[in-house]
Amino acid sequence: MNISIIGSGYVGLVTGACFSELGNNVICVDNDTKKITQLKKGLVPIYEPGLEELISNNLKKKRLKFISSIKEAVYASEVIFIAVGTPSLENGEADLTGIENVARNIAINMAGYRLIVEKSTVPVETGKWVKHTIQTYIKRKIRFDVASNPEFLREGQAIHDFMHPDRIVVGVESAKAKEALTNLYKPIGAPLVVTDIESAELIKHASNSFLATKISFINAISRICEKTGADVTEVSRGMGLDKRIGPGFLNAGIGYGGSCFPKDLDAFITIAEKTGYDFTLLKSVREINQQQRLFFINKIKDALWIVKDKTIGILGLSFKPNTDDIRNAPALDIIYALQKEGAKIKLYDPSSMKKTKGLLAGVKFCRDPYEACRGSDCLLILTEWDEFKELDFNKIKKSLKRSLIIDGRNLYDGQKLKKSGFNYISIGKKS
Ligand code: UGA
Predict the structure, then answer these.
(1) Rg (the chain; Cα; Å)
(2) Ligand 1: residue whose CA is nearest its atom 30
(3) What residues of the chain score a pLDDT lower than 50?
(4) How crowded is residue 1: how many other Cβ atoms within 10 Å of its Cβ?
(5) Closest ligand 1 atom, residue 323 Cα
(6) Containing domain of residue 372, as a range?
(7) Of 31, 22, 32, which is closest to residue 63 (Cα–Cα)?
């Protein structure tokens, strides 16, 4: 199929690269001309394992093209995906300016039937507005369809998630749109959930909110575990084996971050408010998540007593492993709070430090984990990167001023570390 993806951000690039890998002719569009120039050379502006290879392979095979003209893309494609950003406004609502702008541009450039698909995460009923916008700005009487096809990929494993999803959701209102999307996704072979547009839009917000709820739930349980001597990892394992609950998203820690959960929860709470429903459950999920960061900061204060002038080694900054993304990373809040108390920070993260240097004044960026430990009064684990699992703890012990590890991701076997002489503090376990 000839398809276009408008918006070459995270979702747009992965979607474009994967659709071209499946044999389609794909045009990725972005109004950032500098980004397009780089992408044409196969240079990818985000860190996502496997994406650069996929893009350069498909550029070579001429199945993938990067341009900045929506006009050209609309002319050449039967199916047009909208994958532009929907950032949060100050009141938590999603800013849909980008979506409206693209819908208008598609309308004025449409010369024949087109299927316009929302890929961006949008509030329920955005599809209606996209349709209305196209109807308003279209020049001639041309048939078109609007559909919703929310994306469920996770940063760090986006290509795997795209190619092997648990399900594909498409919200349509015509047989023609259903047929086009069914054919497009056929090679993936995943269960297809076909709904109306509003339900598809809601599935996305409901899914992300539910996953965030699982995380806040287990974080709340972790607080009770610490008071009672229970171990949250065991509780989570025991709960997760119940198929009705499932083991995913039950790792206690310093709370969720990233560009999706915090934003989507804010948006969903506002959407609910607009319908007249006070979504108190999600407000609590958000509150527990915020508290979890403060709770961790208090753990550090309890262990160090005086934070002022202490040197704190930190491993991990990105909001989760395998990404360089630091948007809403819990680590940022923790670092700011410690600096406010007068601590000196030594930081190591495998991928996100380059992006951060301007943001974190006064932080010493280290070449490896051991440099972050050297001369530090304690070591914090803030992201569970694989490379932190296999550290040389003898070397760490010698490097630290004091053998204190405070683990915000429950990465290590506490018994083992304690036997090696560490004071090891984690989440949801009695220390
Ligand atoms: C999330 C969803 O998982 C995707 O399905 C969705 O497509 C995406 O948002 C989106 O809306 O675009 P992502 O933000 O990449 O994906 O990251 P997740 O892997 O879901 O992790 C989110 C946060 O939850 C991270 O900070 C992670 O550390 C935290 N988390 C996750 C926990 O604290 N505990 C867990 O058990 C799992």
Answers:
(1) 24
(2) 256
(3) none
(4) 15
(5) 15
(6) 285-425
(7) 22
Closest atom of ligand 1 relative to the 329 alpha carbon: 26
Within 8 A by CB and 6+ apart from 99, the residues are: 82, 84, 86, 118, 120, 122, 126, 129, 130
Q: What pLDDT is stored for residue 346 in this prediction?
A: 98
114-118/79-82 β-pairing: parallel
Ligand 1 centroid–CA 410 distance in Å is 17
With a 6 Å cutoff on the Cβ, whether 253 touches ligand 1 is yes
Residue nearest to atom 32 of ligand 1 (CA): 256
Give Cα separations from 268 to 15, 328, 369 (angstroms): 24, 17, 39
Query: Which CATH number characterizes residue 61's domain?
Result: 3.40.50.720
Is 274:215 a contact under the CB 8 Å cutoff? no
Q: Is residue 92 within 8 Å of residue 267, measured between CB atoms?
A: yes
Residue 207 in domain: no
SS3 366: coil
pLDDT digits (tens, 9 = 90+) for 313-352: 999 999 999 999 999 999 999 999 999 999 999 999 999 9
pLDDT at 25: 98
> What pTM was computed for the model?
0.95
Ligand 1 pocket, residue 155 CB under 6 Å: yes
256 CA to middle of ligand 1, Å?
A: 7
Can you give the pLDDT at residue 12? 97
Residue 276 vs residues 74, 76, 209, 314, 336: alpha-carbon distances, Å: 38, 43, 18, 44, 37
Number of domains in the chain: 2
Question: Which of 18, 28, 225, 260 is flagged as catalytic?
Answer: 260
**CB 153 less than 6 A from any atom of ligand 1:** yes
Long-range contacts of 365-370 (CB under 8 A, 24+ apart): 366/313, 369/315, 369/396, 370/395, 370/396, 370/399
Instruction: Decide which of 136, 168, 195 is a domain's last residue.
Output: 195
Decide which of 164, 195, 226 is a domain's last residue.
195
340 CA from centroid of ligand 1 (Å)? 28
Residues 346 and 364: their CA atoms lie apart, in Å, by 5
310, 303 Cβ separation under 8 angstroms: no
Helix (H) or strand (E) holding 154: none
